[in-house]
Amino acid sequence: MTKNDVKTTSLLDLSHSAAGKYLSAYEYPYEALPDIKKMILDLQKELGDDFTEVSEGVFIHKTAKVAPTAYIGAPTIICAGAEIRHCAFIRGSALVGENSVVGNSTEVKNAIIFDNVAVPHFNYVGDSILGYKSHMGAGSVTSNVKSDKTNVVLRLNGERIETGLRKFGAILGDFVEVGCNSTLNPGTIIGRHTNVYPNSSVRGVIPAEHIYKNKENIVMKIKGENN
To answer: What kind and span of H or E run contains 103?
Structure first.
């Protein structure tokens, strides 16, 4: 793997998010994390009549479904066809893409969720970007702060890449599948079309088109294989 594998355009199809133009300005997607709040506030100024400001700084598309028990903090945009289910907890600085699902007891904070993403059951998504049609199984979470509270460092082929970020959860490429009850440790980046086994503890950069079984067993997918 090289630095090219963790570039924004290598991981994400930017046509599948209202944040596409914003993200295109960054060579690496984690560089966009600190200014997500500002990006959402800027996007809100451009929203059309199909969006309703249901409370200060919270805009919801008229076709989105929001459970009455859900909490949505500002600033947030919920896009067309999205579903915010029972007891979802969106703390703010969140963009929820078209036809995406934020489900039961799922917490979201400072995150870009692309179109057609599912975080449907007991998930935590913080300081993260989830690519098009990615899915996090029940109980899987992003851990966004190291235990020693120091900045997150990426390690790629023995090279240390300083992110300058104390809070950095995960970047999921398009079509990533994360198994139930998995933990994505701070600074995890997973390439497109990769699957993560349930109950995994994932750290570092995982290549595209692979299956993560454990840290010693990461295998390339056979064509047509999904698990």
So the answer is: strand 101-104
Asked whether residue 207 is assigned to any structural domain, the reply reads yes
DSSP bridge pairs for 102? 84, 119
Model pTM above 0.90: yes
DSSP 150-172: PPPEEEETTEEEE---SB--EEE
Please, are residues 128 and 107 in contact by the beta-carbon 8 Å criterion?
Answer: no
What's the confidence (pLDDT) of residue 186? 98
Copy the structure tokens of residue 117.
Answer: 């993403």
Q: Which residue has the tokens 């992003």?
A: 142
Q: In this structure, which amino acid lies at residue 158?
A: G
- pLDDT at 135 > cutoff 70: yes
Structural domain including 135 reads: 3-220
**CATH code of the domain in which 191 resides:** 2.160.10.10
Cβ contact 70:96 at 8 Å = no
Domain count along the chain: 1
